[in-house]
Known about the structure:
By secondary structure, the protein is of the alpha+beta class. The chain has four helices and 13 strands. Strands 7-9-10-12-11 form a five-stranded mixed beta barrel.
Amino acid sequence: MDGPDFLDVAYNGDKIEFSAKNNLITKFKKDLTEGKVYRISHFAVATNSGFFMASNNEFNINFVERTKVVLEEASLIPMSIFTIKNSEEIRSIGGDYNYLIDMIGLVTNVSKEKQYSKGGYVTRMIELELTDDRGKNQCALFGNYVDVVKGFLSSDGYRMTVVIVQFVKIKTFMGDVVIQNVMNATNVISNSDTEETASFRDG
Length: 203
């Protein structure tokens, strides 16, 4: 919960978005660790809405002052939940989709680092070409995500590198449908030991 005001939580194989206002993030941040299982009580329920939603559940859950978070031992909760969409599905959705999605692909090209300017703000940018069995998609990554990409490229190069990008938005960028990071929310995971990566390599 370093930046975004949402927490994506898996339950019974599905996901729901938990939201916390800025003044509550510090309170709950110390109690939550990604990959752990918690029993959460005393919260508010609202309709799921917003510009970019991490879950397509009809509802979301809001942390309030009275919310309680207790660590649990629960082996039946899946530890790796992705909302994978293939390249064909992404292209068919088109630009400016309101739900964040995940994609897995083989890195088949990497652009040089660029400077991108919009509204007087300049940031660094790099593009990955991700390829799956349905085609290719460009993935535009900005800011600190450039360093994440450079980190795994420096050790592995990009040949045979399988990447999962989690919590990315579908956008129209320079006339093309692409996926793009959300600052402080997107995860870029390379050559992981997840079931999704193993299945992708075997497929």
